[in-house]
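Researcher: I'm comparing several assemblies side by side, and this is the next one on my list. It has 1105 residues spread over three chains. Same procedure as the others: predict the full complex and return the structure.
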Amino acid sequence: MPIAPASALSEVTASDQALRRFLHGLPGVDPVGLEARAASLGTRSIKAEAKAYAIDLAISMIDLTTLEGADTPGKVRALAAKAVRPDPTDRTSPATAAVCVYPDMVETAKAALNGADVKVASVATAFPAGRASLEVKLADTRDAVAAGADEIDMVIDRGAFLAGRYLKVYEEILAVKEASGAARLKVIFETGELSTYDNIRRASWLGMLAGADFIKTSTGKVAVNATPANTLLMLEAVRDFRAQTGTQIGVKPAGGIRTSKDAIKFLVLVNETAGADWLDNHWFRFGASSLLNDLLMQRQKLATGRYSGPDYVTVD
Amino acid sequence: MTTETTPAGPFAYAPAPESRAVVDIAPSYGLFIDGEFTESSGQDRAKTLSPATEEVLAEYTQANAEDVDRAVKAARKAFEKWSALPGAERAKYLFRIARIIQERSRELAVLETLDNGKPIRETRDADLPLVAAHFFYYAGWADKLDHAGYGRNPRPLGVAGQVIPWNFPLLMLAWKIAPALATGNTVVLKPAETTPLSALFFADICRQAGLPRGVVNIVTGDGRTGEALVSHPGVDKVAFTGSTAVGKAIARRIAGTDKRVTLELGGKGANIVFDDAPVDQAVEGIVNGIFFNQGQVCCAGSRLLVQESIQDELLDSLKRRLATLRLGDPLDKNTDIGAINSAEQLARITALADTGEAEGAERWSAPCELPSAGYWFAPTLFTGVTQAHTVARDEIFGPVLSVLSFRTPDEAVAKANNSQYGLSAGIWTEKGSRMLAVASKLRAGVVWANTFNKFDPTSPFGGYKESGFGREGGRHGLEAYLAPATPKGER
Amino acid sequence: MSTVEQNRLSVFKTYKLYVGGKFPRSESGRVYEVTDSKGKWLANAPLSSRKDARDAVVAARKAFGGWSGATAYNRGQILYRVAEMLEGRREQFVREVAEAEGLSKSKASAQVDAAIDRWVWYAGWTDKIAQVMGGANPVAGPFFNLSTPEPTGVVAVLAPQESSFLGLVSVIAPVIATGNTAVVIAGEKNPLPALSLGEVLATSDLPGGVVNILSGRTGEIAAPLAAHQDVNGIDLTGAGDELAKELEIAAADNLKRVLRPGSAEYTADPGTHRMTAFLETKTVWHPTGALGASGSSY
């Protein structure tokens, strides 16, 4: 698979200066206005069949995630089983999009999924801090791909980004993309560390120029992860990138999305910002774990008319 | 009722109507005078409709000159005690009112949406919170007037005759009544003829709050009632929000009298977008500026002035955004664009938009089906507009945006100021010095920089030039209701 | 010997209008007789026409941008300079006021002194009024919100008919202190101190057109000014009740800010109301970033 920046914009990555000029020439973001827009979309009232649609869509978009030092094959197998059949009492529930694990658990996950239509995503590149040499990051990536990962969730070098060394970040993404081979690449910005919305917009364009298949908010390992505002901003970026280059890129908010209500708000953001073309798990994902159970309980409520409880969904 | 005429797609939002059951509208209303609902001395009645469906909501009274006289006399009688009440006591009444409004905010939001046609999203999230906040703000002033900068022991004027419009019925009532009462005046208020209900419900709130009789009187009716009120010799202070034409008539009518007046009138706000604007927020600001409340806002950003270098790009974004606006049942919680308030207003908007087309401006609306009953107008853009077009000069008071371009900041300022009005303006730029320079040169009472249509009880609001005079809101808003601190002998 | 001096024929002064920093005669070419309180001829004053009023408005409008855009400090310096210049021509004004108002020399002196002091008072106000009348508003949201007073624009001023100099200064100075420009109609019967004031203003660094002084029939000059669409405010101090009402009606055509006449006592503390009558309040909003825990708040 050829790795090249969208041709329309090839010149902007020709040098560090050109890249900086381009990124700093992107329209600024007014934080108050951005947050107000996100909050306003958050007041949409999603009822009845729209809610049922949204819940199933959200389930299908989950990258069901376990990224703990304490992960074991048993834990990962349980996760895989749940991803394939989220609600043991109701086979109509869709499967999640993927399971997301550390590279050393990819093989276990792959085996446990046993050919089901659920992808295996693996974090790589010295996740979550990304503080390692490029060689180590690439080895990490190749490892995951060799073990059967369908998707790679990489982290950018936030230190380099904040130091203004955009070309370094860009080239690293290019290299990881190449190492990922056929696997789809999600590029994590760790928006909580980038700290400003202007930086998030710049990182989004940097990632997209470098060939990201998805841009992703965060690792889930810092204080601030996915928010409606930073996700809205990234949805604007993929919308604008497609308008400019014709290339569609996915978005993945991760961390902190725990309730159906939250998930539906994010889907409203997708629907009214990037548009219906992104309402598909090929283009939008949730990095989450506990979210799934809440969606399942809401799903049961819609099916039966009564409120469900935690004993009626599986513990992870 | 109306079908939701909104963007289709896989994620179509199901109807989410707010319940009407929370409001109990009486079939018929009298006049609230001297603390109770009374009958008119005449027989004139009128009906108020739901502009979204044309359903008759209630019948109300067309107050005549005798009724107005009775109301002014009741207010005059109440003035003596009310103005003598310690400020701290007046404050407590206003705090009570504020709290009751909060308690009944859902009911009042639904009522306002029914009578006005604006989306419940706006009455719930903008009108009602601002109404309560306004009463809270001025409640706190009632016992602090000595510190307001209007001299020691400033005195109220007496009876305030207040005439309010239909675009924000309850909010305009709050803007008028809260400062008047806080300063010790008593009030005769006339709501607009197409939206009398929330003011009549407010009468009940006054009752619940135990407000002394005659302090607030509500007389309903059309322009004849308003004229009788502002002309009444017993009225010491006239406060009017509405059209510039009526504002001028009032100014003439009170010439040579001792009546004080504040006028909050029309506008043709320029929303100026520079090439370094935060574009996505600017698009939101443009939409909010002209489509909030169907553009029936005196401070609407009805003229978009966009720097020529980014015009095409911005218009593409704007059109894409307009395609996501949801027009339909105002009670649906997902509705962005509600109904036009009246057949008369719809006719005016339609006529002005037709003029725009006839004069050669290019008209565009997002594909949008309008409900068959009720008064509706699709959000509309005019491009290729110049200063010479009617749609760039006349206030349309509807969801119609005129797009003009400029090349330099000087040109933007010159075009923005080239208007008989001077109420509001917007500036979108990421450059601080440019924002401040342009803001200082705009002849407008409210300048929103990188935002639009924001309101707050602490923030003075009012116009330059033919947009009226006097300020409502903030410390400034007290001045209109206090006798001026002038040297002895001067009035 | 001394008789030669006593018999010296004095040089009369030709009183002229003050418009746009120049001293034109009336466009009408007409004058009217000005007498002292006992009916003795003092001088001929220009009888201004509608066209003089129109020209004065053009001059005032032209001067508005520069004067309103000058720093408040600069305006204060210039108003103070007016006081300095008057101090130097004190005797002339004492004589003119005494003749115009039929006052004793000591009473006229008191009027002139008070008028000079009034310029000093308003000179000090130029850079304080914004702090007194404006300020930050604590809105309930992430916005910086500031209200500042701004001058209304071109203001027509009907100077008082009685107090030919103290009253005149008391109505002009507050209008221009805040950055407005003025078209002043001098008291009809006693215009000479006003016309002389023009000469002082012309030498006080006050930009031409900031104050324009017309003499003549108050009603005739005021009517076109009240109806003029490029005049933003009108001070009716010098109008009687009937004229004031007429002018207020005309002023409604473009919603001029109107200061109604009042029986003025010019020796009292002037307060601020003459300034605030011709001030607009502009409120500017700008978002602040919420410095919250959202991590991406700027």
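Model: For your comparison table: The mean pLDDT of chain C is 95.
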